[in-house]
Design goal:
Elements: E1 17-29, E2 36-41, E3 48-52, E4 57-62, E5 74-79, E6 87-93, E7 98-103, E8 107-114, E9 117-125, E10 131-136, E11 142-147, E12 151-156, E13 161-166, E14 171-176, E15 183-187, E16 192-195, E17 201-204, H1 208-211, H2 215-220, E18 228-233, H3 258-268, E19 283-287, E20 291-295, E21 304-307, E22 311-318, E23 324-331, E24 340-346, E25 351-356, E26 365-368, E27 374-379, E28 382-392, E29 394-397, E30 400-407, E31 412-419, E32 424-430, E33 433-439, E34 442-451, E35 454-461, E36 467-473, E37 479-482, E38 487-491, E39 494-498, H4 507-514, E40 520-522, E41 531-532, E42 535-536, E43 545-550, E44 554-559, E45 563-568, E46 574-579, E47 584-589, E48 595-600, E49 605-610, E50 615-617, E51 626-631, E52 638-643, E53 646-651, E54 654-655, E55 659-660, E56 664-669, E57 672-676, H5 678-683, E58 693-697, H6 699-709, H7 713-722, H8 726-738, H9 742-752, H10 755-765, H11 770-780, H12 784-793, H13 797-806, H14 810-816, H15 824-839, H16 843-853, H17 856-865, H18 869-878, H19 886-896, H20 899-908, H21 912-921, H22 925-935, ...
Antiparallel strand pairs: 1-28, 2-3, 3-4, 4-5, 6-7, 7-8, 8-9, 10-11, 11-12, 12-13, 14-15, 15-16, 16-17, 18-19, 19-20, 20-21, 22-23, 23-24, 24-25, 26-27, 27-28, 29-30, 30-31, 31-32, 33-34, 34-35, 35-36, 37-38, 38-39, 39-40, 41-42, 43-44, 44-45, 45-46, 47-48, 48-49, 49-50, 51-52, 52-53, 53-54, ...
Helix pairs in contact: 6-8, 7-8, 8-9, 9-10, 11-12, 12-13, 13-14, 14-15, 15-16, 16-17, 19-20, 20-21, 21-22, 23-24, 24-25, 25-26, 26-29, 29-30, 30-31, 31-32, 32-33
Organism: Caenorhabditis auriculariae
Pfam family, one: TPR_IFT80_172
Domain IFT80/172/WDR35 TPR: 728-816
Length: 1219
């Protein structure tokens, strides 16, 4: 049974994020203990087990809900009694849902769960040493326990001991290998040893981390006495059997993740060859002195060494998906209250993020939430929970959410475009993905290339992933940004400005952009070196660009050192240099490009105002623990930001009431903040859901709506005056218009600067009819159904039609117009509806509308694009002769390969040459010949011969000529070429089956010729005309052609019976073999004579017909095909054979001749009295002497009825016409 894998973590890794924010969100105090020593998180059922001094063991589980927001209450909070010493080790059995704990007294307890309540199941106490390592294998069937004195015990789930052994060293840690067989032990000397499943020593792992340590560290301490803190393999977690449906025995195809592929590879391949398949480091060894070694397998020759300067490691744990490692410890060069730090490191050893846990002297353990978005750490007597907010490489353009995840099974990245309005999903696959940036309706994707055009490939895409433009660049894409006309790619001290081309721009804009070069620049240095097209080389510095943001004419580039450059988009020159805090990771400018919001690597958001010559910091606006932010696209002093689990809107210097939110902010417009739960998208990236996109209205919008809903116009106006925003003025205008308060609506439009709205207010002020005034307001506000109802109620259908015509709602126009009549408005509406269907590729509906409005041109185009050729053919029949569209329809039929329909169209409009050319182009030479004779055109036979000469050469090309002549009705010429091919293949000693097939093909062409002639005769009613036709045909055929027609099947028969003879011999049917071999004597002109008589002699000798054998041997001796030595060998063989077996006629069974009833021998093929030649059964090779027989309708050959039933087709021509 294949176990089902647990997939609870979002699909993200170091390649799909830019950074990672972390902050403490919750604290749980554990009473009755002074210090917690360890913590482990159950991945299946979310239990958290933590243990400490004085035998404290606690099981808790947070309330289910949003992982990011966290929970303030515990659904499980149980203290387990049984230990008296300090808890040192905790191990979960994920499959069987068991908990194993041990303390300083050596006591081991196994706990079981029932209805979320944990009970003691087994106890073991060796009373000799302390347990230093303990763990279950991946399927939960075996447990390994390592003691400090070197004793190792491996047992079963039921508590039975499998083996135990005293190792000749003191131990520090133990760990199972992913295959569940090998065990790894860390010693107190810093070494790691590998043992097999029965306790035999295999190898000692080469610890490069100890060999390459810096000299100062080596002098400061004895490394070989530094303890190993952790040894951890990452492998996927199986789903628990407790919750799994017992009836399910197969693994769902959708569950097989990349983790399953990794595990299956480890189980299937040889351990020594594992590094050929696995590239990600999944095995870590962490030392207390701040060094960690990452490996692919135990014998990895190129491990990754991760160093933490001045850092003492206390614990290290893999993330649930194996992409990150959480490392806890103390930074010894920091103040004492800031020394406790949690580092997040990628599986490739890259530092991703860190979190300081202040005011603590103890940081002993760390555990990951199953989602990978939260960690738990033990400090003193508390458990702190830290939220992880990855800065995903994602974007939002138009109404499309774009995110990236890695398909590890295909070694590529999938970029998903989820259109939130239509809920459509488009996926784009890229290799070596690097960066993504979005702006309005477009996005930039950058991935690494391995070609000569450049190192990186950038493509401009729309909201469904369609590439609109592309560019190659050598700049490492650490940061990417874009606006409506250009993009900037930056890395190191260089930046690349790309002036891309958008399809909808007019030719003037295109010309202006084409004149601009796309160059690579270096900060404070002009482009230097030689040109390569539009790219130039540069000299890199050390101060790397860490963040970008872009305006219409310039962009800002922040460096790690704190330098901020204002750079022109037009020529790439540095306009101004400012100073900002160091390590800025993200920047955004407001809608007027006068303010900057900058987020640093400590998750602090700071604000700056751009002056003419300086950059001024806005005081008292700094926000901590920020992980997402976005400026209002309409108001310059409003920004929305996510701070821990709350979303806050800043209006100037005033913060609105926070709103609970865990979504990343993608847009802020119209006083509405749209957030995206990217974490949830990445939990199931192949199937995104719209419920993960939330719109949050800010407080001022909610308050304004509250006042307007209660029709408090004056109060609402005063409120909006104080909180002015275009969205609020629009709401006020709409409500005022509905209430017919024209003056207030006009005031709102004045505030908006909406000239059309002001004109509308003035226009409806002059309308005296209140109902018509309401209808106009309804139409202005987009309430067209209400406006239509009001218009019709006042008998003003003309105004309703004008409204829908103005809004291009032609379907409504058709509904309002009378059904009869041919007025121009109705025809125009039908045509526009057809255009609507045409644009959406609804071809049949569009063709129907074009037919109704009489637009034949658009109808033809629609039928061609929709491949509706049946209706197009019907249309061509109804068009009058010489119609202008007939040629166009004929060309469409020609492109489709519909020769007959195309010819009819061309002949109908008098284009005879086009009809002839179509027939030639489509190889319909018979029709071409008929057209040429009817209209006295050029000789088609010459054209056909010339074309056939071009396609002849090899046998394969000659077969093309065969098909060509056959299409032209020249069947005899086709057969000639086939038989010529057969002769060439015979000279090449081709297989008999191929030769038979070629001869069958030629014979079938001759049969087709006979059928063609018979069909012509049936159309002749006059006997004399028929007779004259036959004579004419005979006179037109040469003697060679006549012989070819008469002997069409002889070649196929020869090779058929030759293969049958050999088949009989191999199958032991010796009598039938001799009979069939004697049939071959009739085909000496086709087959090799020596081969024929050899088969006759062999089969006759086997059945002891030595007279027949003697005649065959005499014939062989007389052939000139053999050399003198071979002929002498044949004579010696004959003498030896016939001296022992005289060549006399053997008695055999007799049969009656079908003509004269004379008895004939079993091997006779004709009657010696009446000389009747018997037909041969093509199924057995025997003479056919029955009066009833089976006849093939295609080749006209016969067979015994009881023999042919064994076949599914004719044995000779393989036709199924008679079956």
């Amino acid at each position: 049974m294949v176990r089902e894998l647990l997939r609870t973590m979002a699909k993200y890794n170091e390649k799909t994020i830019t950074s990672m924010g972390m902050y403490l969100s919750k604290k749980i105090g554990i009473p009755s203990t002074s210090e917690l020593n360890c913590i482990e998180w159950n991945q299946n059922r979310h239990f958290i087990a933590t243990g400490g001094t004085m035998g404290t063991l606690k099981i808790v589980r947070l309330e289910s809900g949003d992982t990011v927001k966290g929970s303030n209450s515990l659904s499980v909070n149980q203290a387990l009694d049984g230990h008296s010493g300090a808890i040192l080790c905790i191990a979960w059995n994920e499959v069987q849902q068991k908990l194993t704990t041990s303390d300083t007294n050596g006591l081991i307890i196994v706990w079981g769960v029932s209805n979320d309540f944990w009970n003691e199941e087994m106890i073991n106490n060796r009373n000799k040493s302390v347990v230093v390592g303990m763990g279950w294998n991946c399927d939960g069937t075996k447990i390994a326990i390592a003691y400090a004195d070197g004793q190792v015990i491996v047992g079963t789930l039921e508590g039975n001991r499998i083996w135990n052994k005293d190792l000749p060293t003191t131990l520090a840690r133990c760990e199972w290998a992913p295959d569940g067989n090998n065990l790894l032990f860390g010693t107190t000397d810093g070494e790691v040893h590998v043992y097999d499943s029965v306790g035999n020593f295999l190898q000692k792992i080469n610890m490069v981390a100890l060999e390459t340590v810096e000299m100062e560290t080596a002098l400061a301490r004895d490394l070989h006495r530094e303890p190993i803190v952790d040894i951890k393999w990452w492998y996927p977690t199986f789903k628990t059997k407790v919750e799994r449906d017992e009836s399910s025995t197969l693994l769902n195809e959708n569950i097989e993740s990349s983790a399953a592929l990794k595990l299956s590879k480890r189980q299937a391949i040889d351990r020594s060859q594992a590094d050929l398949y696995l590239t990600v480091r999944d095995f870590l060894v962490a030392y207390a002195h701040g060094v960690m070694q990452l490996m692919k397998v135990e014998n990895d020759q190129s491990p990754i060494i991760v160093r933490f300067p001045n850092f003492k490691i206390t614990c290290a744990r893999w993330a649930p998906n194996g992409s990150f490692i959480a490392v806890t410890g103390f930074q010894t060069d920091m103040p004492q209250n800031e020394q406790a730090v949690v580092h997040i490191v990628s599986a490739y050893g890259k530092m991703i993020s860190f979190l300081r846990v202040k005011e603590t002297k103890s940081l002993t353990g760390v555990a990951w939430d199953p989602s990978g978005l939260r960690i738990a750490v033990t400090t003193d007597s508390n458990v702190y929970f830290g939220n992880i907010r990855p800065q995903y490489k994602w974007g939002y353009c138009g109404h499309t959410v774009i995110y990236v995840y890695e398909r590890e099974d295909r070694n590529e990245f999938a970029v998903v475009f989820y259109e939130t309005k239509l809920e459509e999903v488009f996926t784009k696959s890229v290799t070596k993905f690097e960066q993504i940036a979005c702006h309005e309706s477009y996005c930039i994707l950058v991935n690494q290339q391995n070609d000569t055009n450049g190192t990186y490939f950038a493509q401009l895409c729309n909201g469904i992933g369609t590439a609109l433009d592309f560019k190659y660049t050598d700049v490492i894409p650490r940061c990417v940004t874009l606006n409506n006309s250009a993009a900037v790619i930056a890395g190191g001290e260089s930046y690349f400005i790309w002036h891309f081309v958008l399809p909808q721009r007019n030719s003037m804009n295109l010309a202006s952009n084409n004149g601009k070069e796309d160059l690579i620049y270096a900060l404070e240095n002009p482009p230097v070196g030689s040109d390569f097209g539009t790219r130039r080389k540069f000299q890199r510095g050390n101060d790397s660009i860490s963040a970008l943001c872009m305006a219409d004419t310039f962009f800002l580039a922040a460096c790690e050192s704190g330098a901020l450059f204002k750079i022109s988009i037009a020529d790439g020159s540095v306009l101004q240099r400012y100073s900002v805090p160091q390590n800025i990771e993200a920047m955004q400018m407001n809608c007027t490009f006068q303010r900057i919001a900058a987020l640093d690597n400590n998750n602090m958001l700071q604000f700056f105002e751009i002056g003419e010559n300086s950059l001024n910091k806005l005081q008292n606006l700094d926000r901590r623990d920020v992980w997402s932010f976005r400026w209002d696209s309409e108001k310059e002093d409003m920004i929305a930001l996510n701070e821990k689990t709350k979303m806050i809107v800043l209006k100037g210097t005033v913060a609105e009431e926070p709103v609970s939110s865990s979504g990343y902010i993608c847009s802020f417009r119209g006083l509405t903040v749209r957030t995206v739960l990217v974490d949830n998208f990445l939990l199931n990236p192949e199937h995104p859901e719209k419920k993960n996109v939330h719109d949050i209205e800010i407080k001022s919008l909610r308050d304004a709506k509250y006042l307007l809903e209660r029709m408090k116009i004056d109060e609402a106006t005063a409120f909006i005056e104080k909180n002015a925003h275009p969205k609020l003025w629009k709401l006020l205008a709409a409500v005022a218009l509905n209430k017919l308060d024209i003056s207030t609506a006009e005031h709102a439009y004045v505030k908006l600067g909406d000239y059309c709205g002001i004109n509308f207010c003035k226009r409806i002020s002059n309308i005296q009819n209140a109902e018509l005034k309401k209808a106009e307001i309804f139409a202005h506000l987009g309430k067209f159904d209400a406006a239509e109802k009001t218009y019709l109620g006042n008998d003003r259908r003309d105004l309703a039609l004008a409204m829908y015509t103005k809004n291009y709602d032609w379907v409504k126009v058709l509904q309002l117009l009378p059904t009869n009549g041919e007025d121009s408005l109705r025809l125009s509406a039908i045509k526009h509806v057809g255009d609507y269907f045409f644009e959406r590729h609804q071809w049949r509906d569009a063709a129907e509308k074009y037919e109704q409005c009489g637009d034949t041109d658009r109808r033809i185009e629609t039928l061609i694009r929709g491949n509706i050729y049946g209706e197009l053919e019907e249309l061509s029949r109804h068009l009058p002769d010489n119609h202008e569209y007939l040629e166009r329809i004929g060309d469409a039929f020609t492109a489709r390969g519909m020769c007959g329909q195309a010819v009819d169209c061309f002949l109908k409009c008098g284009l005879v040459k086009n009809a002839l050319q179509t027939c030639i182009q489509l190889n319909r030479w018979d029709q071409a010949d008929a057209i040429a004779k009817t209209h006295n055109l050029a000789n088609v036979d010459q054209m056909l011969a010339k074309y056939a000469e071009e396609v002849t050469g090899s046998n394969e090309r000659s077969l093309s000529a065969v098909q060509l002549y056959r299409r032209a009705g020249r069947l005899l010429d086709s057969a000639k070429i086939v038989f010529e091919i057969a002769e060439e293949e015979k000279k090449r000693s081709a297989p008999y089956m191929r030769l038979k097939k070629i001869h069958v093909l030629g014979a079938l062409l001759i049969e087709e010729l006979h059928n063609q002639q018979r069909s012509k005769k049936t159309h002749e009613n006059d006997t004399s005309a028929t007779l004259s036709g036959l004579l004419e045909e005979d006179m037109n055929v040469t003697v060679e052609e006549s012989r070819l027609i008469d002997n069409a099947w002889r070649g196929a028969e020869a090779y058929h019976f030759l293969m049958m003879t050999n088949r009989h011999l191999y199958q032991g049917n010796n009598q039938d073999a001799l009979r069939t071999a004697l049939v071959l004597l009739d085909y000496e002109g086709i087959l090799n004579t020596a081969e024929i008589y050899s088969l006759v002699a062999l089969s006759a000798c086997i059945v002891r017909q030595f007279l027949i054998c003697s005649k065959a041997m005499m014939k062989l001796e007389s052939l000139k095909d053999f050399s003198d030595d071979e002929r002498e060998a044949l004579r010696m063989l004959s003498m030896k054979l016939f001296s022992e077996f005289p060549p006399v006629e053997q008695r055999n069974s007799k049969m009656q001749c079908t003509s004269c009833e004379e008895h004939v021998g079993d091997y006779d093929l004709s009657c010696h009295k009446c000389e009747t030649k018997f037909p041969i059964c093509i199924a057995t090779g025997r003479a056919l002497l029955d009066y009833q027989f089976w006849l093939c309708l295609t080749c006209k050959h016969r067979a015994y009825e009881h023999e042919v039933v064994k076949f599914k087709a004719c044995p000779l021509c393989h036709s199924t016409a008679s079956f």
